[in-house]
Amino acid sequence: PPALEVRGLVRHFPGPGRSTVRAVDGVSLTVGRGEVVGLVGESGSGKSTVGQCVVRLDEPTGGTVRIGGVDVTRLSRRRLRPLRKDFHLVYQDPSASLDPRMSVARIVAEPLVLHRLARGDALRSRVAELLEQVGLRPELAERRPHELSGGQRQRVSIARALAVDPLLLVADEPTSALDVSVQASVLNLLADLQRDRGFGCLFITHDLAAVEFLADRIAVMYLGEIVEQAPAAELFTAPKHPYTQALLSAVPVPDPAVQRARGGSPAEGRGRIVLHGDLPSPVFPRTSTGQAVGYCRFHTRCPLAVERCRTEAPEHRTLPGGRQVACHLVEDDGTAPDAARPRPR
Ligand code: SF4
Ligand code: MG
Questions:
Q1: Where exactly are the structural domains of the chain?
Q2: Listed residue (296, 294, 302) closest to 274, CA to CA
Q3: 3-state SS assignment for residue 138
Q4: Where is the ABC transporter domain positioned along the sequence (predicted)?
Q5: Pocket around ligand 1: residues whose beta carbon is below 6 Å from it?
Q6: For range 31-41, the mean pLDDT
Q7: What pTM was estimated for this model as a whole?
Q8: What is the dotted CATH code of the domain comprising 4-215?
């Protein structure tokens, strides 16, 4: 079984009045063993909520989450505990997850002790090995989290997460709280560890450059749902969904030399697509429970929207090659419109 299998995940909250906040509204995705899947979207798209539901920090209101084939969605806390070693979350702000009273060595040792995986000398040498693997000098072992830099703290939380050899690492914006100069080194570390250790990774971010660097596959979220899913290279070279096209058009085109080094032709310079308006609120009228909304969620901002987009929700279709997309205007053979060139309406 894959490291992670999410099917029809729903997380609704009661909203103001008789409304429903559809934070996550029918998300399905799979992370293979040893695969990195990037989950991207603007803030408020529901991507963090997906991560929280996966690690059971939040309770979904529908759907299932399987980790290594085990349905963890409705397991009691007690039955979940022994499985906890299979999945870990690395947060944006590691200071919130690191106990300020504990030394670095104890923080990293704790999961090994909890799951009875090592003790005594074996424990000490395992902790030393983990610190080395994440690039922390041995003398930092006795420091407390507040005595470390942000980058070092994030390395500690990565060491802690990997101490128990998880099947799945959920990384929610692991670098966005760090200085730009440190971000690349933490991303490189994650990439190296992932290659060596082979854990599956759900990498949640709004940083498209980071996701292009790290992910094998990318799922794009908009307002509680995944609108497009494809292998990273395909998504970056030929985005099909108008929202993905708009997102990618805002990414600076790499330097022509970089582009050639990657085997591509020098950048053509994609036309930038400017979306008007903010991400609409995920608050929907009526306390509805599961049924799809009756329109495309992107229609208020989509440069290509037609009448049908306002009256019918696009189906989530799988195109030849396994790519998934939810847009009325993408043909079954994968022919897609270009949001940079809307036809006059
Ligand atoms: Fe745009 Fe319509 Fe496609 Fe939605 S279904 S993305 S509104 S063209
Ligand atoms: Mg978030």
A1: 4-215, 242-345
A2: 302
A3: helix
A4: 4-248
A5: 242, 296, 298-299, 302, 304-305, 309, 314, 327-329
A6: 96
A7: 0.90
A8: 3.40.50.300
